[in-house]
Amino acid sequence: MNFDKNTQRRTERSQPARSFSQFSGLMGDIEKGVESRSARTKAKRKKPRNRRYKIIRLAVLTLFLVLFFVWAKKTSKIVWTQHENGMEDISKMGEKLGGDSTKKANQKLNKSAEIDPFAENEAKKLKFLPLRPEMERKLRELFDLGNSDPIRLIRSLEYDDPFGVGSDNPGAFECPKAEDMWSEPDIRDMSAVERFKRGDPDSFIYYQHIRKAGGTSFCEMAIKNMKKGEVSKNFCMPDLKGAMATPPWSERSYLLDKLKSKKFRMTVNEWDAFPRSHLTLPGAIFVTTLRNPINRWFSQYRFEHLEKRDGLDGQLPFKTWYKFMSPVSQGHNYYVKAFSGIENPPTSVLNEQEDKKKVKPLYSVNMLWSWKKFDSWGTKVSYQNFTRAVETLRKFNLVLILELSEGSEEVFEDYLGWEKSLKQILPWEKKAKKRKEKQPSNAKENLTVKDWEDLAEKNVFDLLFYHFARRLFLERFSCSKHGRKIEPTFPEKEQKRERKSVVRVVSQNSKEIMGEYVEGPKVVEKGNKI
Questions:
Q1: Are 399 and 469 in contact (CB under 8 A)?
Q2: How many angstroms separate the CA atoms of 96 and 115, rounded?
Q3: Does the global pTM surpass 0.85?
C-alpha cells in the first residue's frame, strides 16, 4: 500500500510510545557509542600531538644550545683580546670612532688612571734603602733571565737554588754572613710590634691575605690568641669582606675610626691589591703569608672547581679552567701585582666608574675592581714594578711562608706575643661538609709536565718573588733565633769605612757574653743595647 509523505509522517506520529526500559536501553547504547567514538578520536589525536611537541621542544633546545656556544665563543675571544692587549685595544677602538669620540675615550682613560694625590704624598714619606750592590746585581740577573728565557730561570730556581732556600726545614738554615744577607739593610718599622705585644689599643695587625696561602689558618690563630672582641668574627674582616682599598675603608681616617670604635685590633685585606700608602698607617703591624705560587693556583682550582663551589660540575681540566679564570681574577704574577703598591684613583673618581650595565660605582658590584689597572701587564712585568714589590715586602714586619710554618712557630710569639700553636683549618670548614679525602695541592703531582711548565712560565716573576720571600723569612728567623740583629747601614757609607767594627755576641736568655771580640760587622742583641 502506497502512502504519500504526509500520510507516512502522520502514521509514525500515531504509533504508540516505546516503553521506559526500551528507551533507557537505547540511550545507554547511544552514550556508549559516543564515549567509544570520543576515546578513539582522542587516541588518534594524542600520538601526533606528542610527536609534534617533542619535535618542537628538541628544535628549541638545539637552537638555544647553538646560540649559547656561539655567544660563549665570541665572549671568550673578547676576554682574551682584552687580556692580552689590555688598554691598547680600548685606545684603538677609540681611534676608530674618530674625532670627538677619540678625545672622550682618552679623557676617560686618563681620568681612570689618575692617582689619589693624598695617597701618593703618603707613599712618598716612606724611606727605602736599596739592597746591597751584590744582591741587587744578582736579583737583576735573575729577573733578566726570566724575561729572556723563563724556563731556564724556573729550572735554575728549582735545581741551582740561587737563594739557598731549598730545604723546608727552617732549623737547617744558618744565619749567613753580613755580606751574604738579602734581608739587609732592614727597613722595617718595628715600633708597633712591642706596643702590640703590650696590648696597646692603638696598635693593630694589618694582614695582607693572599688567597689560598694560609690566610684562614692565620685568622683562626688570631681568634685563639687575642682577646674576645678584638677580632671580627667574619674571617677577621672588620668590613665583612676584606677590601681595605675600597671606599670608604680606603680613607685613612675612616679605617682608624672604625677599628677604634669597634675595638678591633686586626684588619684583613684580601680582595684588593695592597696600596703602598697604607704602610704609613700609624700603629700597624704588617703581616702576610706566601706559598709556592704554582701550588697556590692549583689549590684555588681544587677549592673552587673540583669541590664545585663555582656552580660547575668539577670536570674541567686545570688548563681549561686556568685559561678562563686567570683573566677574570687576579691574573698572572698575582704576588708582584699585590705588592707593587700602585695607588688607586681618588674616591671621587671611583664613584663615577661603572660596569658594563652602567651601574655605579664599579667597586660596589665588582670585588676585583682594584686589579683592573693590571690588565695591560699580561705575562710581562717591568723591573721597576718588580723592585717596588720587593721593597714593599721588605717593609712588612712579618713575612710568613706556608711551607716553612712547621718548625718556625716561635716567630708568632716573638712578633705578636701569640703562644698557641698554628693548626691547619680547612676554608669554610664550619659551613661546608668536610672532605672525606683532602685533595693534594701539589701542582707537580697533579699536572702534566707541559701544563706545569706553562703555568710556571706565565707566573715566572711570582716564582722569583716567592724565592726571595723565602730567603727573607729564613734570614730573619735564623738570625733573630741566635739573638742578634745586624744594624742597617748604607752601602755607600760602608765602602768608605776603613776601620773594622767588632762583634759582641750576647745570649738572648742569660744576657751573658758568649764570645770574645772578633773582627766583622757590628752586631747587637735584638731588643737590647750593649
A1: yes
A2: 28
A3: no
DSSP result, 212-274: TSSHHHHHHHHHHHSPTTSS-TTTT-TTSS--TTSTTTTSHHHHHHHHHHHT--EEEE-SSPP
pLDDT at residue number 504: 36
- pLDDT digits 0-9 by tens, 344-358: 999 999 999 988 888
Q: Are 277 and 120 within 8 A, CB to CB? A: yes
Please count the other Cβ atoms lying within 10 Å of the Cβ belonging to residue 220.
19
For residue 272, which of 348, 356, 374, 361 has the smallest C-alpha distance? Answer: 374
Angle ∠(421,422,426) on CA atoms, nearest 5: 150
pLDDT at 499 over 60: no
- Span 24-48, pLDDT tens digits: 555 555 555 555 656 555 555 545 5
Q: Map grid coordinates 744578582 to a residue.
A: 138
Inter-residue contact 273 to 363 (CB < 8 Å) = no
Strand partners, 503: 518
Q: Report the helix count and the strand count for the chain, using DSSP H and E.
A: 20, 8
Other CB atoms within 10 Å distance of the CB of residue 519: 8
Phi and psi at residue 302, in whole multiples of 5°?
A: -65, -45
* CB of 326 closer than 8 Å to CB of 462: no
Inter-residue contact 287 to 208 (CB < 8 Å): yes
Single out the residue of 409, 378, 390 nearest to residue 336, CA to CA: 390
* DSSP code at position 375: T
CA distances from 390 to 318, 381, 383, 466, 469 (A): 30, 13, 10, 10, 8
* DSSP per-residue letters across 384-419: HHHHHHHHHHHH-SEEEEGGG-TT-THHHHHHH---
Is 437:365 a contact under the CB 8 Å cutoff? no
> Cα dihedral sign for 282, 232, 364, 327?
positive
Cα–Cα distance for residue pair 212/226, rounded to 1 Å: 23
Helix (H) or strand (E) holding 519: strand 518-519
The Cα 294–Cα 157 span in angstroms is 13
Q: Is 207 left (phi over 0), alpha (psi -120 to 50) or beta?
A: beta
Q: What confidence tens digit (pLDDT) does each residue in 400-411 have? A: 999 999 888 899
Report in angstroms the alpha-carbon separations of 310 from 192, 301, 359, 431, 433. 40, 10, 24, 16, 16
Work out whether the CA dihedral 16, 21, 24, 28 comes out positive or negative.
negative
DSSP letter for 322, please. H
